[in-house]
Design goal:
The protein is an alpha/beta fold and 337 residues long. The chain contains eleven helices and 13 strands.
Length: 337
Amino acid sequence: MSEYLVTGAAGFIGFHVSQRLLDRGDHVLGVDNVNDYYDVRLKRDRLAQLIGRDRFRFIEADVADRRAMADLFASTRFPAVIHLAAQAGVRYSIQNPHAYVDSNLVGFLNMLEGCRHSGCGHLAYASSSSVYGANQRMPFSVHDNVDHPLSLYAATKKANELMAHTYSHLYGLPTTGLRFFTVYGPWGRPDMALFLFTRAILDGRPIDVFNHGRMRRDFTYIDDIAEGVVRVADHPAQPNPDWSGDRPDPGTSRAPYRVYNIGNHQPVELEAFIETLETCLGRKAVRNYLPMQAGDVPATYADIDDLARDVAFRPATPISEGIARFVAWYRNYYAVT
């Protein structure tokens, strides 16, 4: 029996990726430390959905725990590791930077070492659209330089890509980084805009709209993200025979290393996003317009041509459908009308 290792299995994306793997008949070992960055009950309820299924087992552990991760890799050889555990949040990284070093750097090194020593066939891991930082050329391309992050969170994700490349070069470990673009949908994170907006509107409170509403995001529905992650995990990175050190391509390498964007490729104005939510809720939002937050960017837009070419997948769920599904889930989960 072979198992996929999915770290961050109690998290938003990890939960959905695990479900997708189980749906197609795979075995999954989920790992999560179930920390209290946000509502632990939501994480436990996600886990309950997974633990109730055949072919899923769970270990509660921190990826930053070197001994625990070494023991885990010593006990099982994984055909692929899908590493999604991380300390998330651009704004929180300004308040609590040490959490990002522990989880996103130490934890990531433990994954690399585990994969290296156990002979794992492929490490697919979560990066982020935040690595584009000060870049302004749209759409964002994995072949563009990304050396100007605007938050520590973004810097740790860029560091993950650099660390992965090193292990691909030194040890021939296939690694693939996945730059996610504003993921939303059922079972989402309470610290993200859609969740915050929905809760505030239903409670009759104003919503905070940063940069005075002049924001555009490549909102990507969770089912599209999960499908893209699984397809990439099944497609180990290959060396690029045309890669040249004279004109280094940041998105590929002569080592088995790749980076992909996973975004909807259809950026949406924040005001249009809010209006769609208002329609789904049947209520109007009271907007509290605020300046841009430190570490944030005004727009994101993913070039997904490489993803489409290599794994034959393009996210396509429109926000009208995705937001409606989220609202239906939210009303049911929290028993609100």
